[in-house]
Amino acid sequence: YKSKEEVYSFIISDLEGALVAAPGSSVSKYRATRGVAQALLAKVYATKPNPDYAKVVQYVDQLSGSYSLLPDYNHLFDGNHNANAESILEINADANNIWWWGTGMFIGDGWQRFNLPTHDLVNSFDAQADNIRKANTIKFDVGVSDTYWTDKNHYPFAYKQRIQDGTQHTYIIRYADMLLLKAEAKVNLGAYADAEALINQIRDRVSLPNVAAITSKEDGMNKVLKERLLELAFEGHRWFDLKRTGKALEIIKARTNGQGSQLSYVNNLTEQRLLWPIPQSQLDNNPNLTQNSGY
User: Fold this and answer.
1) Alpha-carbon distance 198 to 181, whole Å?
2) Adjacent-strand bridge partners of 155
3) Residue 49, pLDDT score
4) Are 251 and 242 spatial neighbours (Cβ–Cβ below 8 Å)?
5) How far apart, in whole angstroms, are the C-alpha atoms of residue 216 and residue 213?
6) Whole-number pLDDT of residue 26
7) Are 265 and 258 in contact (CB under 8 A)?
8) What's the predicted TM-score (pTM) here?
9) Model pLDDT, residue 170
10) Which residue from 4, 55, 56, 226 lies 20 to 30 Å from 41 (Cα-Cα)?
11) How far apart are CA 132 and CA 252, in angstroms?
């Protein structure tokens, strides 16, 4: 049985060892490289129980010579710019050794209603006239009307994974994610102007005006989370962002349906439900384990 702190220390030592042995970042976008280790170290230092935000900045800065934002956001997801300058690690499906078949679940007028956009996401794009990222993130098509989205002829689907012949590449880590993580670290370090500059670098690519000046840590964290929502939707980061920043309950409990009414399930969410229960089989095997609170 290891404490949370011991587990994080092991992860960090493992990644720091990889920095020495891993191949250079330019070797491949499809395997572990030094850049992947640097990115993961930044994420670990931001996530561990006592975050070290100076280390987050340090490791993100080490990525800057090897990665850069693509000038055109549309190129990130069009299928014609795989293994690009922004990609740090991606899955290279080829319809042979790796067949990425799951994209067929995302768009259709039958059962294909997985990972649907929320009203909050659509409204967030619209509130900022964030048309470039919205068009690359959400596709409105013919679907099936339900109580959440009632117009079946204007039904929203997740659209970043859109290649349906088995060759869809999928980002695990990209540079925009890391720049916004650095902005989060800068907010926590009280360097608000630096955080604003990083957020604006992301917004400039999609022709959006600069973010309003950050006035406090709370305001800065909300601005970073909003930008991460708009930039990284459907790339697998949102839950971890909310957990890491302590905003999960606050934001998920505010979810509403198309009429603005609170969704029924949110009242079941408690602090305890932010962790899964430890499987009984593991408790039986190890008497030193204690079940998570609430189960």
Assistant:
1) 9
2) 141
3) 94
4) yes
5) 9
6) 85
7) no
8) 0.95
9) 95
10) 226
11) 26
Query: How many Cβ atoms from other residues are within 10 Å of residue 49's Cβ?
Result: 8
Amino acid at 20: V
219 CB-near residues (< 8 Å, 6+ apart)? none
Model confidence over 29-53: pLDDT tens digits?
999 999 999 999 999 999 999 999 9
Q: HEC states along the chain? A: CCCHHHHHHHHHHHHHHHHHHCCCCCCCCCCCCHHHHHHHHHHHHHHCCCCCHHHHHHHHHCCCCCCCCCCCHHHHCCCCCCCCCCEEEEEECCCCCCCCCHHHHCCCCCCCCCCCCCHHHHHHHHHCCCHHHHHHHEEEECCCCCCCCCCCCCEEEECCCCCCCCCCEEEEEEHHHHHHHHHHHHHHCCCHHHHHHHHHHHHHHCCCCCCCCCCCHHHHHHHHHHHHHHHHCCCCCHHHHHHHCCCHHHHHCCCECCCCCECHHHHHCCHHHHCCCCCHHHHHHCCCCCCCCCC
Q: Residue for token digits 């090897």?
A: 66
Q: For residue 150, what are the CA distances in angstroms to 45, 73, 145, 156, 259?
A: 43, 30, 5, 11, 10
Nearest C-alpha neighbor of 243 from the set 256, 261, 228, 231: 228
List, as own/partner pairs, every contact residues 189-197 make where C-beta atoms lie below 8 angstroms and the sequence separation is at least 24, other chains included: 189/53, 189/54, 189/57, 190/217, 192/220, 195/220, 195/223, 195/224
Low-confidence ranges of the chain (pLDDT < 70): 1
The per-residue pLDDT for range 132-152, each reduced to its tens digit, is 999 999 999 998 878 888 899
Q: Are 243 and 254 in contact (CB under 8 A)?
A: no
Contact of 15 with 41, CB cutoff 8 Å = yes
